[in-house]
C-alpha cells in the first residue's frame, strides 16, 4: 500500500490505519514534506480540549465520563494522552489508557504519546492531533502528564483548557498560584463526593473567583465521575466556551497560536535529529567531543560548532 492509500483509509477514521499512519509519521516526520498538506488542509474543524491537573486528580475518570456523554450526543472523539516516559527505558506509564479504554467504542480513538523527561509537549502529540482532526473527529481531548508552571504549555495547543483539581490537597492550590491560574477556561473540583470538596471549592473560589479571561467569566464546577455528577454541566460549559470563542474571534487567535507552536516544536525536532546525525557522521565533531572528555575544549564550543554546521557556516 502506498502512502496516499494509507492516508485515505486513515482519514476515514479507521482505527487500524490511523495507528499505522501515526506510527509512520512519528518514525519518519520528513514524510510530512510531501504528504503533510493532505492532512493540514483537512484539519482545523475539531474542538480541541485540554485536560490538565496534578497526578491523582481524576483526569482519566472524568474524561471517560465526558466521552460517554459526547458519544450519546453522536459525536466522534479522539483522545491524545501524553504519558511520562522513563529516562532510562523510554517506556510510558499507560495507566490512563487502561482506565479510559473501558469507555472506548467505534466512535472513539485513543493514542498515548510518550513525553521525554525534558519535554512537556512532545511534537508527536501535535502530529497525532492534526491527523485525528483531519480524520473528522468532532472533539479531540488532550490529557497532559500533570500540572505545574512548566505544564502550562498545553495552553498553546488547545481551544479550551479544563483544569482538574482534587479535594483535600494543598498542592493543587499552590499549583494554581504557580501558573495554572493563568490558563484555565474551566476549573473542575473532581471527586466532589469527598467530604473535603466543599472546603477546596471555597479555597479555589478565593484564588480564582471572578476571573474574566478574554471576556469569558471562568466557571468553577464540582464533579464526581463515579456518581455521574456535574458531567452534563461540564459538557455544557465546554460547548458554551466554544461558541463564545467563535463569536468573539478568539478561536482564530488560539488556532494561530497552535500552529505557531507546531512550527516551533517540529523545527526543534528536525534540528535535534540533524544534530544527532552530525555527531555520529562528522569525524571533526567526534574529535571535538573527545577533546571535551580530555578537557582540551569546553562543551559550549562544540555546540557552537554544530550550530555553525547546521547553518552552513563551517
What is the element layout, followed by pairings?
Elements: H1 3-10, H2 15-27, H3 32-40, E1 47-52, H4 59-72, E2 77-84, H5 95-101, E3 108-115, H6 123-134, E4 139-143, E5 160-165, H7 170-178, E6 186-189, H8 197-208, E7 212-213, E8 216-217, E9 220-222, H9 231-248, H10 250-281, H11 283-293, H12 299-310
Parallel strand pairs: 1-4, 1-5, 2-3, 2-4, 5-6, 6-9
Antiparallel strand pairs: 7-8
Fraction of residues in helix: 40-55%
CATH architecture of the largest domain: 3-Layer(aba) Sandwich
CATH class of the largest domain: Alpha Beta
| Strand line-up across the major sheet | 3-2-4-1-5-6-9
| Counted beta strands | 9
Beta-strand residue percentage:
5-15%
By helix and strand content, what is the structural category? alpha/beta
Question: Which stretches are poorly predicted, pLDDT < 50 over at least 5 residues?
Answer: 86-96
Number of distinct helices: 12
- Categorize the overall geometry: globular
Note the gap between the termini. Answer: 42 Å
Mean pLDDT: 83
Return Rg in Å.
Answer: 22 Å
What series of H and E elements makes up the topology?
HHHEHEHEHEEHEHEEEHHHH
Q: Largest beta sheet, briefly?
A: 7 strands, parallel
In the CATH hierarchy, the third-tier topology of the largest domain is known as Rossmann fold
CATH superfamily of the largest domain: P-loop containing nucleotide triphosphate hydrolases
Amino acid at each position: 500500500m502506498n502512502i496516499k492509500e494509507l492516508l485515505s483509509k486513515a482519514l476515514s477514521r479507521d482505527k487500524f490505519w490511523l495507528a499505522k499512519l501515526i506510527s509512520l509519521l512519528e518514525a519518519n516526520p520528513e514524510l510530512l514534506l510531501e504528504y503533510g498538506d493532505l492532512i493540514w488542509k483537512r484539519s482545523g474543524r475539531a474542538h480541541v480540549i485540554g485536560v490538565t491537573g496534578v497526578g491523582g486528580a481524576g483526569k482519566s475518570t472524568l474524561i471517560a465520563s465526558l466521552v460517554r456523554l459526547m458519544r450519546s450526543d453522536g459525536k466522534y472523539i479522539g483522545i491524545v494522552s501524553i504519558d511520562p516516559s522513563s529516562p532510562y527505558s523510554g517506556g510510558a506509564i499507560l495507566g490512563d489508557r487502561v482506565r479510559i479504554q473501558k469507555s472506548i467504542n467505534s466512535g472513539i480513538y485513543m493514542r498515548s504519546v510518550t513525553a521525554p523527561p525534558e519535554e512537556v509537549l512532545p511534537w508527536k502529540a501535535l502530529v497525532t492531533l492534526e491527523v485525528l482532526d483531519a480524520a473528522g473527529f468532532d472533539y479531540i481531548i488532550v490529557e497532559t502528564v500533570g500540572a505545574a508552571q512548566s505544564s502550562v504549555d498545553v495552553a498553546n495547543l488547545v481551544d479550551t483548557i479544563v483544569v482538574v483539581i482534587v479535594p483535600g490537597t494543598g498542592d493543587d492550590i499552590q499549583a494554581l498560584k504557580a501558573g495554572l491560574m493563568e490558563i484555565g477556561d474551566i476549573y473542575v473540583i473532581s471527586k466532589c463526593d469527598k467530604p473535603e470538596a466543599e472546603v477546596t471549592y471555597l479555597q479555589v473560589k478565593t484564588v480564582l473567583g471572578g476571573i474574566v479571561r478574554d471576556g469569558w467569566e471562568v466557571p468553577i464546577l464540582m464533579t464526581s465521575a463515579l456518581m455521574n455528577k456535574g458531567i452534563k454541566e461540564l459538557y455544557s460549559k465546554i460547548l458554551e466556551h466554544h461558541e463564545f470563542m467563535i463569536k468573539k474571534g478568539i478561536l482564530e487567535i488560539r488556532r494561530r497560536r497552535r500552529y505557531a507552536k507546531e512550527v516551533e516544536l517540529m523545527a526543534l525536532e528536525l534540528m535535534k535529529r540533524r544534530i544527532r546525525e552530525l555527531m555520529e557522521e562528522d569525524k571533526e565533531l567526534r574529535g571535538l567531543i573527545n577533546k571535551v572528555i580530555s578537557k582540551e575544549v569546553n562543551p559550549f564550543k562544540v555546540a557552537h560548532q554544530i550550530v555553525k554546521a547546521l547553518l552552513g557556516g563551517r
